[in-house]
Amino acid sequence: MAINTDHVTGFVAGVGTAALGVYLYKQNQQKVDHWLRQQGIHLPQAGAKDERGMSLEELTREKERLEDLIAEREAQAKKQP
């Protein structure tokens, strides 16, 4: 079976539709994920990591990042009246 213009047109239309779907999902990701959770489909949070699979070095880096974030928030809270 030879590839003809119908095949190419269908492929291009499919790629375009998929790209549009991804674009629209990313624009409305929080709304879509919230709706999916309401339907009982639980997706991992964006940027969420499984701590059990992290190495000791990764866990230490994450701990230091959180401690820095806490210190920044505490400093901001002290500055505000």
Per DSSP, the total helix count is 3
Summarize model confidence as the mean pLDDT: 90
* N/C terminus separation: 76 Å
Beta-strand content estimate: under 5%
The percent of residues in helical segments reads over 70%
Q: Which ranges are low-confidence, i.e. pLDDT below 50, for 5 or more consecutive residues?
A: none
Number of strand segments: 0
Question: What sequence of helices (H) and strands (E) makes up the elements?
Answer: HHH
Number of domains: 1
Estimated structural class: mainly alpha
Radius of gyration: 22 Å
| Shape verdict | elongated
Q: Can you tag this structure with a few keywords?
A:
81 residues
How do the strands and helices of this protein lay out in sequence?
Layout: H1 5-27, H2 29-38, H3 56-79
Structure description:
The structure is a single chain. With 81 residues, the protein is mostly helical. The chain has one domain. The chain is 70% helix and 0% strand. It is built from 3 helices and no strands. It has helices spanning 5-27, 29-38, 56-79. The protein is elongated and about 70 Å long.
